[in-house]
Design goal:
Length: 438
């Protein structure tokens, strides 16, 4: 067990840096101290993150770029160190993507998401570990809550770094469940925006049809702050009008995919929400979840074969078995199956919206994973509970919701396509209510 997971939430860190309560140099040194003290056990950071000298030099450069005395003139993430999943390109850092391929083969221009963070005053503390090419071959990262359990994947390092208090913000991606699941396993907030609202250029693709850029924080307010920087066309005026959302529970075979302990934890979370005054409506949804799962998996395989075609032709012997099997499957996927998969994204989105409208549902609430983090590091856990929300491309926030046998569990809340601002506004009170979950 790692005894110290203390760390600050993003929103208060950003306020302290912008106000001058602390300086970027001082906070960079604090983050580096924590990495030195904690990361040997958890292994969230690739090569241990940037050196102290490098990180402090970047903090000094941020201070020089924004020398104004008026805190209101400082950018929103002034001096905030961030972790970046190692499938994002960052100038000055190699991209390994959790693989044995030569980094020179994978190199590319800095990702737009990274550039937006830097323009907002953030500095990159380093790369965080990922499963190979954001698929299933595990990273070396451990769960900060119990080192014998997985942190989830594929954004393993980013979730663990935030949970371990070694960064207040970290970028991840989700193609099936790679933000929301590790957020639940590590007990932090994860956000997967609406499909396409954060550009994916500069990110090594797994499936261009369903890849999402997302991120991790300790606090909902921080997730909202990061969203205002990262998302295209951020609309703060689209926040809620003061009314609480009616929450829909997707009853049916979808929920049968949970474990017994996971289902009990989810029902406890629903009780906590109801006890806090939320209207919770059980509505039949995802009756064809098996077909949705198959359609999504086939689409990811076909897209992966296209994205990795040249690399795989040259370096097939360096790919992990799981990733190689995915690419081989994708090579054999009929074009008609790909077309059906892409069309199915919109159909599923429309189906969800129709049920929500019929039952008066404003947002859906569901388990963030089948149960708590599995024991062992050979398996990052099953993303099946996240899959339909990713396939539909709707915004989804993962919130901590108690624990099972000392390990965190979470729920995910999904809103209408494009309704990211309203979802993150709702999430603050939802997170408070969920603190009462067993």
């Amino acid at each position: 067990m790692n005894p110290d997971r203390s760390g600050e939430a993003l929103a208060p860190v950003a306020r302290a840096l912008r106000s001058g309560e602390t300086t970027p140099r001082e906070y960079a040194a604090t983050v580096r101290d924590r990495i030195d003290a904690r990361d040997d056990a958890v292994r969230a950071w690739v090569d241990g993150a940037k050196s102290r000298e490098w990180l402090v030099a970047e903090a000094e450069a941020v201070e020089r770029r924004h020398p104004v005395d008026d805190p209101g003139e400082r950018p929103p993430l002034f001096g905030v160190p961030v972790g970046v999943k190692d499938i994002f390109h960052v100038d000055g850092l190699p991209t390994y993507a959790g693989s044995d391929l030569p980094p020179g083969e994978l190199a590319g221009p800095t990702a737009t998401a990274v550039r937006r963070l830097r323009e907002a005053g953030a500095l990159v503390a380093g790369k965080t570990h990922t499963t190979e090419f954001a698929y299933f071959d595990p990273a070396p990262t451990r769960n900060p809550h119990d080192l014998d359990h997985t942190p989830g994947g594929s954004s393993s390092g980013s979730a663990a770094a935030v949970a371990n208090g070694t960064t207040p913000l970290a970028l991840g991606t989700q193609t099936v469940g790679s933000v929301i699941r590790p957020a639940a396993f590590c007990g932090v907030v994860g956000f997967k925006p609406t499909f396409g609202r954060v550009p994916t250029d500069g990110v090594i693709p797994l499936s261009r049809s369903v890849d999402h850029v997302g991120y991790f924080t300790r606090d909902v307010a921080g997730a909202r702050l990061a969203g205002s920087v990262l998302l295209d066309d951020w609309r703060p005026d689209d926040a809620r009008d003061g009314d609480r959302p009616t929450l829909g529970v997707p009853d049916g075979p979808y929920l049968d995919q949970t474990t017994d302990s996971g289902r009990r934890a989810f029902e406890a979370a629903l009780d906590a929400l109801a006890n806090d005054g939320y209207d919770v409506v059980r509505a039949r949804a995802f009756d064809d979840i098996g077909a949705v799962n198959d359609r999504h998996d086939s689409l990811v395989a076909a897209d992966a074969a296209l994205a990795h075609g040249d690399w795989y032709a040259e370096y097939d012997d360096r790919y992990a078995d799981a990733t190689a099997d995915l690419i081989e499957e994708g090579r054999d996927t009929p074009v008609a199956t790909v077309v059906e998969g892409r069309r199915g994204r919109g159909e599923l989105r429309a189906s969800l919206a129709a049920v929500a409208a019929d039952r008066g549902v404003d947002a859906w609430v569901a388990p963030a994973a089948p149960g708590p983090a599995p024991e062992g590091l050979e398996d990052t856990g099953d993303p099946v509970m996240n899959l339909p929300w990713t396939h539909a491309g709707v915004p989804t926030v993962g919130l901590p919701a108690g624990s099972v046998d000392g390990l965190p569990v979470g729920v995910q809340v999904a809103a209408d396509f494009g309704d990211d601002e309203r979802l993150l506004d709702w999430a603050d009170e939802l997170a408070s209510a969920l603190r009462g979950a067993a």
